[in-house]
Structures are given as C-alpha cells and as structure tokens.
Amino acid sequence: MRKGLTLLLVALLAVTLTVAGCSSNTPAPAGEEKLKVGFIYIGPVGDAGWTYAHDQGRQYLEKELDVETIIQESVPEDQQSEKVMKDMIDQGAKVIFATSYGYMDHVVNVAKEYPDIIFLHCSGDKIGDNYANYFGSIEEPRYLSGIVAGLKTQNDTIGYVAAFDYPEVIRGINAFTLGVRSVNPDAVVKVKWTNTWFDPAKEKAAAVALLDEGVDIIAQHQDTAGPQVAAEERGVWSVGYNTDMSKMAPKSYMTAPLWNWGMYYVKTVKEIQEGTWKPEAYWGTLKDGFVDLAPLTDIAPAEAQAAVDKVQDQMKAGTFDVFAGPIKDQNGKEMVPAGSTVSIGDQLGMKWFVEGVEGKIGQ
Amino acid sequence: MQIRLVKKADIGTRRQTLIFLAAIFLALFTTGLFILFLGLNPIRVYISMINGAFGSAYRLEQTFVNAIPLIITSLGIAIAFRMKFWNIGAEGQIIMGAFFASYVALNHSDLSRPVLLSIMFLAGFIGGAIWGFIPAFFKAKWGTNETIITLMMNYVALKWIIYLQFGPWKDPSALGFPKIPNFAENAILPKLFGLHIGWIIALILVVLVYIFMNRSKKGFEIAVIGESINTARYAGINIFRTIILAMVLSGGICGIVGMIQTSGVNLTLSKEITGGVGYTAIITAWLGALKPHWIVLVSVLFAALIQGSSYIQSAFGLSAASAQLFQAIILFFVLGSEFFARYKVIFDWKSLSKAKEDRE
With a cut of 0.90, is the ipTM above it? Predict the structure, then answer.
C-alpha cells in the first residue's frame, strides 16, 4: 500500500538532487563581486537590545560600503555556531563577525580551518593571523548612567538585572555602582542573575523580584527591554542598555549605555577591502564614539545632565578613569589603592564586586 | 449539520499518492503566499532551499549530519510506538545518553580511543535505557500514563544538564562562561568520507531494528501487544517483560544518539545537545510508518528541509522565525494529509435539514 508513496518520495529526492545539481552551476545573482560579510547573532534582531544594536551596525555598514551582508539569528554558543560559520563561508562570506562571547573558541577553530577568511569576535580576547576581537569600555557610559540613577533614587536602593556572572557583566555592575555612589554614597545596588541573555519574560520576572524587595530603579545587563517593562508597570524608573528603550517604557526610561557597532564595522571592513587590515584587539572608548550614553529623557532628574556632562567631558579628555582607586570590595577590603587603577587585563578577568553591591558571584 | 469521522479500512495507493501530492502542493502554495508577502519570489526561494540542502558536497554533508540523529531517534521511537507505547521522551533519553557518555569521556580520557569510544557508546545506551526503563516500569506495574511521564522526564533530564553546565561541570578555564569542557581528542568520533561515523552506526541500527521488528519473536510480541493487549495475554506473552524490554531498547537507541551528538558533532555536552531532535523524530517516525527503511528516507528529506531553511535564512536575510514558519506549514499539510488518508470526513447534510425541521 505504501509502495507508491515511497516511490514518489524517492522520485522527489531524485528530482531535487537534479535541480540542485543544475542550479549550483548557475552563477549567483548579481553582485557576486561584492565582498560578502556574515553576522552571527545570539538572539533574534527584534526591536531593541544587543542584537538589534549589532544589526543597526550591519545596516550602517551596507549603507556606507559596497558590500553584501548575510545574517543568522539565534545561534547557540556551542558547536552549532561552527556549522553556521561554515554555512556562511559555503555561501561565499569572506568576513565573519561573531557577536557574542560564547562563540570565541569556535571562531578560533573555524579560523584555523579557513585561513583565507577573516573572523572578528566580539568581547573575547583571542587573536591570530586571520582572527581578532573587538569590544570597548561600556563601563564609561555605565558609570554615567549610574550618576543618573544615583541622583534619581529616593530610597537609595537600585536593582540590577544581570545575565551571567562573567567578568564583562561584573565590570558593568561595578562601574554602574561606582557612578551611583559618586553622587549618592549611601545607595546600594542589588543584583539578580537570570542566566540568560535573551528571555524577556524571565528578565522581567527578575526585575519584578527586585521591585518586590523595594528597589525604585531598575538597571540591566541583558539583550532585551524586559526589565524596563517591569519598572514601567510599577511606575518606577529604569536605566536601559544597548539601544534607546523609551518606546518600551516611556514613563520609566531615563537613559542607557549604548554601543556604536556600525562605526567599527565600517572601519574594519574598509581596512579589509583596502588590504590594510591587521589582527588587533580593538578597544573602543567614549572618546572614539564607540560607546555612548543615550540622551537623558525628561524622567531623569534635572541636575543629572550637568553632573553627567562634567564627568563625560573628563572621560573624553582622557582624564577620568572609572576604576581609579581607592576602591573597596563588597566586604570593605581595599582592592585598588589610591593612586592606582585596574588594568584592562584585570578588568577582563574581574571577579569581585565593589562596595555597595548586594549580590553574589558564582551561584 | 453533523460532521463525522470514519476510519477508512484501506485506501488504494493511487488515492494515497494523490492526497500526498495535494498536501505538498497546498503546502508550497501557502508558503508561497507568505513568501510573496515578504516581498520575495517563491520559486527562487524554493530552488535555493533545495540548492541549500543538496547543492554542494558541503551542503549534502550537512544534510546528512542532520539526518543521522533523526534516523536513529526515529528507530528508537518506532519500537515503542509499534507497541502503542507513546514514548514522547526521546528528548530526555538522548540527553541522559549524552550525560552518561560525557561522564566517561570527561573522566577517562586516558583510555585508548577504541576502548574509550566503545565504553562511551555502551554508556550512552545505558543512560537512555534507564530513562526508558522508568516509565516502562510504571506503566507495566501500575498502568500509569506513559505519555505524561515520558514527557515530564524530558524536563528532569534537561534541568539536570543545565545544573551540571552551570554548576559542578562548568569549565573552570572559561572565565565564568557556563560551558562544559571540550572532550579530549580520543573521545571524538572518527570520520569516514568526511562524515563522523555516526552514519555507519545509523545504517547498522536500521538493519538491526528491521530484523528485530520483522524477524524476531520479541519483535512480533511487541507488535501483538500493540494490536491488542488481550490477544497478547491469551497467547501467553509475558507482557510485563516485553514492555520493559521494548522501552529499554527504545530508550537505549535514543541514548546512542546522545553519545553520537556529543562525541561526533558537539564535541562536548551542552543544554542544546538535542536540538529538538527528540520531538522532530516523533514526526519522522510516524511519517515513516514506523518502518526502518522508510524512516531513513523521511529523515533525510526532513533533514534537507532543516538545512534548506537554514540556508535561505541567510541567503535571503530572513528571520529565524520565518524559516521555522516554512517548516511548520509544510509539516502541517503533510501531517494533515496523513489524517485524510486514514479517516474519511462525512458531512451529514441530512441531520442538518433535520435540525432545521426541528427548529421550525
């Protein structure tokens, strides 16, 4: 009874193979000469957050330079990402941007297998002949956003919804807290881990839990605007991340630390096109315009703009160091003596909280 | 009006083929509307989907890499389904197989490669078999609902791996990034013709499962229990033991998938290890009519669908969601056609006019 069906399926398979065989010989559609650049995203592009910000950068790249870009959304940070990179190379990509920390080792593996392809990995620290990394001091705008939060809070408790206890996230919490306490030495920052980058519901739930503990501002290090929504619903205030989140939380959103990925993508791809690219660890700053603080909204306190501007000018002049001592850790132990600072290397491995943070690392 | 469903006794090959063709056509038509809506040319998208799945040696290889776990898992599921034991727990059985194999790989990498891989293979089978044994025991002993228990055990297994990945097995050298350390070189499946040897394991299992189900006494007994438990009882079949055996095999075979995916594809254990194969394989097992040889064919076609939609996603800049939507529409129609092949829908106009009369 099923024989007919099987025959049919076999025929279908045969036809598809033939068609595939033919079509693979036909040249690719117009624009084959264009440099093809692949982007690997950790989540869906969506309408706000980390991946959205990278995608804005990609669109900027397409606008500025004569290149073709391909993307793949929601790529897990495991072996699967190597397959996606190889798929892209199979489709003609010559440059690949991998935009999440967990792709690091996989980028190195594939890079070694394909020496002619250039790989750029966001937020890692590996570097080789045909692969390099890029990131920047988001701590500067985080510190500035901390100033805004520190001035706004009424009960001196601020909540921080955070993804994973990596050094990257810990660094951000510390910078934010230092900013808060620079204007409000009594304030504390309570941290909740979500163990996810992209899960709006879970991130919102973590914010709700913090709000139940009595915080009146929600800051965050996630890829979505979930925490903002929680603050909005409770009628309290929030600091976003990655993109302007005023649309998601018009009555709560004050500002956000921002990345300007497009600037780096254009610079790098241009160098690759011109043949001047060299593997380097790119570290962008506020001064370069690679990171920035989103314009303050009306919800931010009136005196915040002046306070932010003062520090921001110093940062741009290169005279302000977020991690300049003296800094004590959570338990009051002095970690950075006065007159000293935390080197970039130590920042990349930071595994301790500054004084004023309530939360645990390594849960 | 009344709508009644009547089970068809048997329908001819011609009709079945027609229904199937109609399903494919409708699926392509509906997907085509959606593609048009996205502002793309459906024909071009379809051709590049096929091209993406079979168009080069690399793509063909990727299609087969996707097909291997589907084939083996479907085989495992088919054994249980033949007995009408609804094993929805392949996902969990794969995970536990992967966990057992990974335990061996991470702790005994000093063994020689053939020995280590053999022990991992065995461990994978045992891990899956234990996860299959538990619901079988409950069912055979107390008549519990296997669908619910196997389904729930998937989550137990998944949460266990997440616990390991974020806790005791976390790679200390990864700076807090929650990943389990990669396997050592000798815990990784060797390749043959550019493809990890999971494909050979799959082919051997196809033959073995075929023989078991069609030529062995136990395989026959499993089918009898599936047809009627009372007949089986009359025939003197030991129902308790047969249910346990079938599920140990079913779970064990799924557990092998866990070993193959960790050792051949993922090179370590992670919470994404299954990639949803445990659920997809339910569909492929069913579409393959629980017959090993058809399962191979259906699985390869399905793997091509997955690989092809991943290809068009980057080729046309589609979102991950729309690629999944294509798959879902195609599945919806193909599975729906199965329904129309098995049941007849009768629109009972008489009762409609009768109801009208009653009202009047």
Answer: no
